[in-house]
Write a structure and sequence with these properties.
alpha+beta
């Protein structure tokens, strides 16, 4: 099977079942509140379909974690055990965004792909230096746009 077909299959699966966004992490160094931002891409499957998650990790990087004894928000209902694939690495996320943006499927998720790609391109270029106040505003803006796009019925226009 060609690499292009493998990426196309992943693209369809991810746009249907995956999650992509910028997440904000609150830290408290020296008593001050500081926000850090990072991309997050994830996908889950029932544990008996773990081979799919393993294939994704081997092809695109990231990490796998297993959730057992998941309780639903509905009292007393237990859900299947699940395998989760996730990446928060900007280099990996950028590579995946470039694959996902080639989709011709009309999906609200493609707005998040564009936002996360924009963030990751900036982050990779920036490396590990400290953010300026203007760059912190950029991160917050991308985070807020992703958050707004995830609301039901809303869509962010880029």
């Amino acid at each position: 099977m060609s690499e292009e077909i493998k990426d196309a299959e992943f693209r369809g699966l991810f746009l249907g079942e995956g999650y992509i966004s910028i997440v904000r992490i609150k830290r408290y160094p020296k008593g001050k509140i500081v926000f850090n931002y990072r991309p997050q891409l994830s996908l889950s499957q029932r544990l008996d379909n773990r081979q799919m998650i393993d294939w994704i990790k081997n092809r695109y990087g990231g990490h796998i974690w297993i959730a057992k004894n998941i309780k639903s928000r509905f009292v007393g209902i237990n859900m299947s055990q699940a395998a989760f694939w996730t990446t928060t690495n900007s280099h990996e996320a950028l590579k995946i965004c470039k694959i996902l943006e080639k989709s011709s499927i009309p999906s609200k998720k493609l707005t998040d792909v564009k936002l996360v790609k924009r963030y990751c391109e900036w982050k990779v270029k920036m490396a590990k230096r400290k953010n300026t106040p203007k760059e912190k505003q950029f991160c917050e803006k991308i985070y807020q746009l992703c958050k707004e796009n995830h609301k039901f019925g809303n869509g962010v226009t880029l």
